[in-house]
Structure formats: C-alpha cells, structure tokens
Design brief:
The protein has 17 helices and 13 strands. By secondary structure, it is of the alpha/beta class. The protein is globular.
Length: 392
C-alpha cells in the first residue's frame, strides 16, 4: 500500500506519547508499505533538519507544515463559534488543508492515516479509504481535568468535553478503520458501534529499553512530558501528598522528576530531596539510576509509555488503577497498584526496603512487557485492517 500519514506534530524528538506512537507505527508500516508523511508543526523549537533525518529512512516523502500563532488564534476563535472542539481548531488551518489535499492528489495514496482527532477535519471529506487513530479518548481526558479543575475553569473544560464527545462520535462514521490504544478507552467512545474500533496497543523497543547497570543515585523516579496536565497533576500529588508519607519512614529518600518542558508547578516542588531535571538526552539513564518507578496518574487516558519503558528496563513499578486499567499488569506480581497517597507511599517504602520482593516484581514486570507489548505485533493489527479496507 501507499499510505499517506497525517500527524498533528512532527514525531521527533520522542518526548511525547503521540510522537512515540506515530514514529514506531511509521517504522513498522514502512517494512511493507510506502509511507508519505505530512506532519503539522506548531513549535519553533523543533529541529526540523534532525527530524527529517530521523524520519526519512522510513518515508518516500516527508513534508512539515508550519502553523503560525496568529492563524492558530483565529482558528480557535472560529472553532468556538461553530461548535468544533477547540483543540481541533488549534491544529486546523485552511492553507494547510489546501496543501494537504494537493499532496494527496499528487501521491494518489491507497490509504489515508490520521493520528488523533485533531487532524480529522483535514481528511473526513476525502474519498479515499481512511484510518483514524483515536489513540486516547480526548473527551474523557477533558472530563477528568474538569473534575479536578478550579471552579472558574470547570465550565471551559466541560464545554470542551461535550464538543469532543460529539466530534468523536461524528468522526466514527467518516473513517473506514478506527483504532484506539486500550479497551477502557474504547469503552468511553460515545458510539453504538464502538466495538468496531480496533485495540492497537503501544509497544516498547526492548532492544533500546533494556536493563542497564548504573549506580543508584535516586530512590524514586517519575518521567514524562512535564508540561502535560496529567503529569503535572501527578507530580503535585507525588511531591505534596505521597512523599511526605515516605519521608516519615525514609527521611533521606530522593525523588527524581525527569522530563521535557517542566511547568512552573513542577519546578516549584524541587527541594533537597526532589530533583527536577528538565529534558535529558537519554531517558534510560533516569530509569537505570533509580531504584523504583512510580506513575501516580489520576487524570488522563491511554497507555502510559513510561511504565512500559521502566518495566522493560527491569525497574520495579508502582501505579494507580487508572493507569493500570490500560496496562493490564497483575497487581502484586508484575506491579503494585494503589490509589491513595498513604497506600502509594507504603508501596514505595515496601519496594525500597524489601530487596528480594522488589527484584521479583521487577523481573515479573520485565517478563510481562516483553511478552505482551511489541510494536510489530500491535501495528500489524492496524495494517491488516487497512489492507482489508483498501480491497473492499
């Protein structure tokens, strides 16, 4: 097949979950198909030359389309008045649409593949077989943000929740193949035929994320894009509610928060026992230099890549039932799962003080992700559905 891939962001560097998923899916699809890549770009910080060099080996054509700030503001405003989700408006531009359609006409692909609801407005009226990767249920993520938002912000989040829920439903009927990251996410799509959506989980590059021998400089580590609201919320929960309980038992325990673009609220939790690193070139070092990984997620949707990576590096892991709902690891065997600050703190203390038990959970978690999470197998589910759609 010749597949035209449209992304809301340039999938390099791989500091965000949607970029990681897109990059690895492109890499796998390129084994048997020709990939024409078109990626929108809203950031001036992206090194487009480095991104091109990373993507070009897998694509016969690579196009980046810059979306400028004034146009973004205008289209968010336009979306507000016509009832579209504002984040679809953020990534929509009429000039970009014309360029995308010219590329489609030029390359004559067999399949259009759009990642995330954000790009659906560019593709929904094109008469070529189409695939939409919902990835996460944006509407549910917005609802969870509304639940924890300040009173003054709740109406905004609830408005966007309702717009996203309606648009998720509408776009279902516009695309031939629909994919999503997990069963809990699929269950939250408000459409009577949602069971038709294919579960395409993430994988992990086990050759890259493998156990490394390093001096343990930190007791606990949490990683991710630290400008992302669910991660910010998790950092505040970890630093302000969980760690004080840990320090009652282990007063010298050190927490390492590693990830790009730390929000001011993330930076503010730093102290003698909490290290906030910002961007690091090789995230494996953060995992390998730490004794325990925790992902105390309370809002957000989808599968946490950070958990897959840490488990693949044989680090004992702790998370919440929200995050494990997509992961499907066995509590007490592959991972520890709890939700309250006191329980999560007790889990940290347990893994830091019970070396044999920690090693067993680390090994079981390692075996679990190596057995279940593989990019090649996951992407083949989508590829097979694409082939069927182009032949029908």
């Amino acid at each position: 097949m010749k597949i035209f891939v449209l992304l809301p962001r340039i999938p390099w560097p791989l500091e965000k979950g949607d970029k990681l998923r897109a990059y690895n899916q492109i890499k796998q699809l390129a084994k048997n198909n020709e990939i024409i890549l078109c990626a929108l770009n809203t950031s001036r910080k992206v090194d487009k030359q480095a991104a091109f060099q990373a993507l070009q080996p897998y694509c016969s054509s690579v196009t980046f389309i810059d979306l400028h700030k004034f146009g973004i503001f205008f289209n968010i405003l336009r979306s507000f008045f016509i009832g579209l989700p504002l984040q679809c408006g953020y990534f929509y531009n009429t000039k970009a649409k014309k360029q995308i359609h010219r590329l489609i006409k030029q390359h004559q692909p067999d399949m259009l593949f759009g990642q995330l609801l954000r790009v659906a407005p560019y593709l929904h009226n094109v008469k070529i077989p189409k695939t939409l990767d919902y990835q996460d249920v944006f509407s549910m993520g917005m609802k969870r943000r509304a639940d924890v938002a300040f009173l003054i912000a709740k109406p905004f989040f609830n408005m966007e929740y309702n717009r996203l829920r309606r648009y998720e439903n509408k776009m279902f009927d516009e695309f031939d193949v629909k994919t999503i990251i997990s069963e809990p996410d699929r269950a939250n799509i408000d459409h009577p035929q949602r069971d038709e959506i294919l579960i395409v989980p993430n994988g992990v590059d086990h050759d890259y994320y493998q156990p490394l021998e390093r001096e343990k400089l930190y007791d606990i580590v949490f990683t991710g894009n630290m400008g992302y609201a669910p991660n910010i919320n998790a950092v505040e929960f970890l630093a302000n509610q969980i760690m004080p309980n840990v320090w009652e038992k282990l007063p010298n325990a050190k927490l390492y928060i590693a990830g790009a673009q730390p929000d001011i609220r993330v930076k503010m939790v730093a102290n003698d026992n909490i290290i906030v690193s910002g961007w690091i070139d090789d995230m494996r070092e953060a995992y390998a230099q730490s004794r325990v990984f925790i992902a105390p997620m309370r809002i957000g949707t989808g599968l946490q890549n950070k958990l897959l990576e840490a488990m693949s590096m044989k680090i004992p892991c702790i998370t919440t039932s929200l995050a494990n709902g997509s992961l499907h690891a066995v509590n007490g065997r592959d991972i520890l799962v709890d939700d309250s600050s006191s329980e999560l703190a007790a889990d940290i203390v347990f893994l830091l003080t019970k070396e044999k038990a920690a090693a067993e959970i680390a090994q079981n978690g390692y075996d679990f992700v190596n057995r279940v999470y593989d990019w090649s197998a996951a992407t083949k589910i989508m590829e097979d559905a694409m082939i069927t759609a182009t032949q029908s």
